[in-house]
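Many introductory courses stop at the sequence. We go one step further.
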Amino acid sequence: MQTEVFSELFPLLAAANPETLDWLLSVATEHEYPSGRAVLMEDAWGNAVYFVVSGWVKVRRHSGTGEDVSTLAILGRGDFFGEMAILDESPRSTDVIALSNVRLMSISAQRFIQTLFKDPQLHHRMLQLMVRRLRQTNFRFQLRHQPPAIKLVNTLVSLGENYGQTSGSGVDIFNIPAKDLADVSDISTEETSKILEKLNSKGWIQINPDQQVIHLVNLKQLMQLATKKP
């Protein structure tokens, strides 16, 4: 991967100087996983930072005996994970699973921390993105009393804005299973399926299971619905 492509793909690295990017590329390890494969297990957090080159993953939380599993987040191309475990070194009850075929690049914890100390621009950019994630978490908390449709549409809009690919049908995201969308949106799987069917029938989204894609046909219209007051 060329340095320019590396920088453009990952917002975290946009502020890094060229020498930093060259060095990170030289020490990065590439990984490929099929759909359904565990990308990062509970006991492996803190070893490296992972960058999503292509595909989609979900971060899951385990409760109790491990049988109760819920999806905390869905990440796509250009995002990263594992940085918090490096910084606070605390144990995690979460894992990361590939939703689709996925390509990742990992950088070991020691080398990533060294890079943060050497490049203050990268350090500052990482702090900005971590604050942004906290704001997104706070926004999701503020939605807790909103109707299920508002919650789900907000999730779809967020995925479209962060990871969507523009096509002739609008903005495309992966056809994420209803259970995972439900967990992230804090609604039931049954509610999620019904709302998706209604959005599809209205022509606001188009679900293409053969290509494993959800077309967000009119993202602006969905954004208006997401901010609609009950």
